Amino acid sequence: GPLSERRLMDVRLGELPAWLATCDLSPQGLLGGVQKAWRSYYDKYINVRRGGPAGISMLLAGYCLLSYGWNYQHISKISFLVSA
Amino acid sequence: MSLSFFDQFTSPCLLGIPLILLSMLFPALLLPSQSNRWVNNRLSTLQSWFLHLITKQLMIPLNKKGHKWALILTSLMMLLLTINLLGLLPYTFTPTTQLSMNMAFALPLWLATLLTGLRNQPSISLGHLLPEGTPTLLIPALIMIETTSLLIRPLALGVRLTANLTAGHLLIQLISTATTALLPIMPAASALTTLILLLLTILELAVAMIQAYVFVLLLSLYLQENI
């Protein structure tokens, strides 16, 4: 179909800049994109008939990784001073 | 640059942008919103059951006028619970270790209970300052003591939460540093310290949940006196 209506997974690598040009980058558009992304994650992994701990655990693991990324600059300056 | 043990409590910042708002908003993702289905997914069902449990627990001692407080007390409980528990994950930041945030929760809510009491039933609220059956000579001293204890309540609420969580996180960091430091020197002692770390983590899980509950319970008790 036309480039603007395809989802990100269906866009080929060469067409990526063109696809990015067509998508809505205003604050409302970005917010709508975030909401859509959350909705699709939620509906695929958590809002299922027999869900388990996996859906939430992936979210929490992602949060840990994100926090690690936020703190990396601070943590990387540790010099392990162990007085023997 | 050496790292002190208190660096884990600095408010997270990325390129000068404070991230504390994001760490406070993240728990909202974990609490699913309402859906129009009759039978929800397991997470929603679990959450609804839990919410029902704590609302019942908090609202039974209150009279009908106090039930107006159900929404704010229950949502405060869920927020504190999720923030405290999320702080136990590695590398995460716990907003409730900041005294400023806990005082921002405690002071307005305590003041609201106080003003509700003073506005609607002033003599009963003031009557709480003097316990029944005190000897006449002790009355002035006791009134001053009770007023002090009344005025110190918001400080106590905020500092209790902050101190418990900060102390717990600090202990975890200290003991894990000891474990890694002892590992090349004396593995047996390191194993013992790992056991202590495990027990401490279980304690911290309990403390996280209990402190959230105590905060909201005390607020509901202050409300009971005044409504």
Pick out its properties.
heterodimer, A: 84 residues, mainly alpha, 3 helices, extended, B: 227 residues, two-stranded antiparallel ribbon, 2 strands, 69% helix, globular
What's this, in brief?
The complex is a heterodimer of chains A (84) and B (227). Chain A is mainly alpha-helical and 84 residues long.
User: What is the helical fraction of chain B, as a range of percent?
Assistant: 55-70%
- Largest beta-sheet details of chain B: 2 strands, antiparallel
Per DSSP, what share of the residues of chain B sits in E-state strands of 2 or more residues?
A: under 5%
What count of domains describes the coordinates of chain B? 1
Protein name (chain A): ATPK synthase
Subcellular location (chain A): Mitochondrion membrane
Family (chain A): Belongs to the ATPase F chain family.
InterPro entries (chain A): F1F0-ATPsyn_F_prd
What does this structure look like?
Chain B: It is a multi-pass membrane protein. Chain A has helices at residues 16-22, 27-46, 54-75. By secondary structure, chain A is mostly helical. Chain A folds into two domains: 1-51, no CATH class; 53-83. In chain B, strands 1-2 form a two-stranded antiparallel ribbon. The longest helix of chain B has 40 residues, at 187-226. Chain B is globular, with a radius of gyration of 22 Å. In chain B, 69% of the residues lie in helices and 2% in strands. In chain B, a hairpin with a 2-residue loop joins strand 1 (13-14) and strand 2. Chain B is an all-alpha fold and 227 residues long. The model of chain B has no long low-confidence stretch (mean pLDDT 89). Classes of the chains: A mainly alpha (84), B mainly alpha (227).
